[in-house]
Amino acid sequence: MNDTNFGSLFRKRLVFIVIAGFCAVMVMQLFSMQIIEKTKYSVKADENSVKPIYQTAPRGVLFDRNNQVLVGNKPSFTLRITPADYDKKLTPYLEAILGAEPGYINKILIQNQNYSKYIPRRIAKDVDFKVIAWYEENFAKLSGVDYVIETQRDYSFNVTGAHMFGYSKEISAAQLQRRKNEYAMGDEIGSGGLEKAYEDILRGQKGIKYVLVDSHQKTIGRYKNGSGDKPAVKGYDLVLTIDKDAQMTAEAAFKDKRGALVAIEPSTGEILAFLSAPEYNLQDFASVTSNEMWAKLNQDKDKPMFNRATMSIYSPGSTFKMLSAITALEEDVIDTNFRVNCRGGFQFGDRFFKCLHVHGTVDLETAIEKSCNTFFYQLILKIGLDKWAEYSKKFGFGQRPGLDIPEEAAGILPTRKYYDKAFGLNRWPKGILVSLGIGQGELSVTPIQLAQYAALFANYGKSAKSHFLKGYVETNTGKYTEVQPQYYDIGISKKSFDVIRHAMYRVVNGAGTATNIRMPDIAIAGKTGTAQNPHGDDHAVFVGFAPYDNPKIAIAVIVENAGFGSVAAAPIARDVIKAYLQKDKKVEQTKTDLAQSGNVSEKKLNAN
Description:
Layout: H1 2-36, H2 38-49, E1 50-55, E2 62-63, E3 69-81, H3 91-98, H4 104-111, E4 121-124, H5 129-138, E5 145-154, H6 162-165, E6 167-170, H7 173-178, E7 188-191, H8 193-197, H9 199-202, E8 207-213, E9 219-222, E10 237-240, H10 244-253, E11 259-265, E12 270-277, H11 291-299, H12 308-311, H13 321-330, E13 339-342, E14 345-348, E15 351-354, E16 360-363, H14 364-370, H15 373-383, H16 385-394, H17 416-423, H18 431-436, H19 447-458, E17 462-464, E18 469-473, E19 480-482, E20 487-489, H20 494-509, E21 525-531, E22 539-546, E23 553-559, H21 565-568, H22 570-597, H23 602-607
Parallel strand pairs: 2-10
Antiparallel strand pairs: 1-8, 2-3, 3-4, 3-5, 6-7, 8-9, 10-18, 11-12, 11-23, 13-16, 14-15, 17-20, 18-19, 21-22, 22-23
Helix pairs in contact: 1-2, 10-22, 13-15, 13-20, 14-20
């Protein structure tokens, strides 16, 4: 009996000790969690109930030189998936509502599978509001799916400018690897043109806000009344050198044409109009660009993605005759009294080089005015290849212009070294030189180089490095900072420039090859050209500037497979010059009227 009582008592005490020990452990654990490690577990609790929402920063707006919007922003809906919470059974329904092909969502998830499963993946940008309405009606059943309101580029301002502006796109895995400290998966980054060149100031700073969510990830309120939130900061606005009216006129003129146009303010190097035709539609890149769209653009025989204005090389044709002329004057090879008798061409060795007409006896100015090939066939033989190449380099040929967009070609400037490499030391035929005299042969230039060439004739050899950015506006302060151009002088005498400039004036206003673009109120000086094309019809070329006495715009136009420069290229140049100068006159008159009225100072007006 006693043994039985003892056993029963022992068991009771053992059970009591076990229960007491368990309670002690629980108390200690609760004490640790509630007191010692309170901060740690508070953070864990917050992670379970607090959801961070990142806000993309609007990119900076692009304005023209007169503060007219060229590229803006607009709100758009972006649908996202967070893989950790996503039920793949929802995929067919999402693809159906988005109108996507089967496998579309799975492809996105596979492409981004190396990133944290808690980071949302963008699956559709710029989605229609009906998709958002469908989501709001069914969000309780759409675990791991949400949407955010972001901004995307707005191209509804009547200017295309695709090759100039470029576009932004979702950062690639390779780019993210290189810049992982600056970007996160799904961020936008500039691609091509000014969007790429000025990415660092255009992109702005992302914002973040914290919200409280329930077990279904539905937002139920702000976290700590938003005390930890950071608003997104828009990127800097860029004020470009482009004139919207001139740009619109150029784009309208090149509808259904191929070629390029560049217009520059001669004294500052500011680009007033810039076009490569055909262009692509930037709106196709504002959201997700389909593989079909990429394939269509890249397979198009007209190559709309290729920037002809800076990358395509053309023979300059007769527009290069001024280069030989100014070289000969500067080097005292000839003077203004030098004459050549044109009988329809020039015999050199066993080859006859043709001229378009029988011009008779012509001096230098008349040879430029009438575009006499015979005169320049003989002139370059007097100059020689070395001096011709030296002065060509002074004018920027054979080298990249150094624009503030990333795509540029140097063109081809033949030199003695070039021909020795091609034919052997001093074994190249001297007839090659004759063709160079009229801008043919191996010589190739880009449209931007031709525009700079025209600007140097306009401003007596003084200009600035060509550029698109006039200034920028800081978002937080509103401070405007103007970019200072890089000025230069190629060191050629005013006397020589006066002769060539006057000859260019006669081309349009005398009895020259471009009298069809003569205007009563604007004096244009220029030179036409017809560039040989081994792959089809010749290209039409024109370079020029205006007004003659006080140049405000220099221009180069190339229209592919269009024949004579006077017929196809010169009228386009005239229309762009007119669009720019007539508006420029109105702006200056408005400034004068306001200043005279006493409402605003002349100094402040000029600053604007």
